Amino acid sequence: MGLDAARLYFICDITHLDALEPALRGGVDIFQLRDKDASDDELLRAAQHARSLCDRHGALFVLNDRPDLAVAVRADGVHLGQDDMPLEEARAIVGPEMLIGRSTHSAEQIDHAHGADYIGVGPVHATPTKLGRPAVGLDLVRHATACAAVPFFAIGGIDETNIGAVAAAGATRAAVVRAIGDAADPEAAARGLRAALAVPVG
């Protein structure tokens, strides 16, 4: 699975890692392990497990915020927020082949995400995973559709009730946290979200 074909992006912390394998069965193409509270040892163990599952299902594996650990576990990518290290510094650590993702929250950030291989655009809706960050709404998704120079994933409060509107705004890729991680049936949740993006698998 390459980035161009990836449509559904699942993000979770270590405590929700049980949802990963069913989510992969349901159509998740790219997974990010994001846990700001775990120790390096805990992150490494979880990342190695996630790497194995993603390999088994042909999905991309991304580690949040830690280029050094991403290299150590042979991740496919590392994801950086606006307040994390500069992209140039991360690139020097991970080398030319690893994907680097960047969170964006404004048209200016989308237009100047130089050096990123993909961007996250949001939060589209208010979400408890990003407390204090105002929702950007669908207008920013429309801007990304028209102007983003790299693939983008709409993110933030996206679930089965609103992913259709996100797709209608032009997004062909979406990233979710709670819509899969908190689902009673992560496989079914992933399958429904993937179908709502209206893009054939592969």
Q: What would you note in describing this structure?
A:
- There is one protein chain.
- The protein is an alpha/beta fold and 202 residues long.
- The protein has a single domain (3-196), classed as Alpha-Beta Barrel (TIM Barrel), CATH 3.20.20.70.
- Helices cover 38% and strands 17% of the residues.
- It has nine helices and eight strands.
- It has helices spanning 20-26, 40-57, 67-72, 87-94, 107-111, 137-147, 163-168, 178-181, 186-196, and strands at 8-12, 30-33, 60-64, 77-80, 99-104, 118-121, 152-155, 174-176.
- Strands 1-2-3-4-5-6-7-8 form an eight-stranded parallel beta barrel, surrounded by four helices.
- Helix 2 links the parallel strand 2 (30-33) and strand 3 (60-64).
- Helix 1 packs parallel to helix 2 (40-57) and helix 1 runs parallel beside helix 9.
- The protein is globular and about 40 Å long.
- The mean pLDDT is 94.
